[in-house]
Amino acid sequence: MDKSVQQLMNFLVELDEKSVMSQVQEIIRSTPEFGMEKNNEIIKACQQGMGMIGDRFSQGEYFLPELMLSANIFEQIIGLLPKNFAGKTGFLGRIVLGTVRSDVHDIGKNIVGAMLEASGFEVIDLGVDISEEKFLEEVKKTKPQILAMSALLTSSLEPMKSTVEFIKQAGLRESLKIIIGGSVVSEMSCNFVGADAFTTDAAKGVQICKGWVSGE
């Protein structure tokens, strides 16, 4: 890991918001050819940092306010990063992304969305608490190659399943790959939902999507 990115991760773990923002801007300024590789290096470092923050929370060193602050800082980091390198990497395809109905968690969704954009995908991020009807409407309108649904709650598996059913009933399932992600997903839940793949890791999710559009 680059020293400047390592320092960024350290600032994040210490919840030093001002230093985090300054460090991100400095990395962008000091990297003449800022592209997918550096973008993903930053995101992965921040993922590690968020994991360390989670450990501190589990150990009683950090509490809910610190956890919420870290999420806010991470969101700001994502907001500062360039959004798309399609011109450099080539357009790979279109993905509709969203967190399903009754679930408002978005950190994981935002991470994978940023990494997908950095890889050359056009990402249509619908946000959180997205209904089955809204997912279907967007799939009909934009005709993506992939639908990516995110969830953090076990109860969110049911809306994922019903979203897939809506898409099947509309006759759009065969032309669409579906991936689900989040800490609650597994091979069993993937089969329950009727998705094509699942992932708990953003980088792996990007590789799965790239494999689909390249025919691997």
From TrEMBL:
The keyword Metal-binding applies. One of its GO terms (biological process) is tetrahydrofolate metabolic process. One of its GO terms (molecular function) is cobalamin binding. Residues 1-93 form the B12-binding N-terminal domain. Keywords: Cobalt, Metal-binding. Residues 92-216 form the B12-binding domain. Transmembrane segments: none annotated. It holds the Pfam family B12-binding. One of its GO terms (cellular component) is cytosol. SMART domains: B12-binding_2. The keyword Metal-binding applies. This is Cobalamin-binding protein. It comes from Formimonas warabiya.
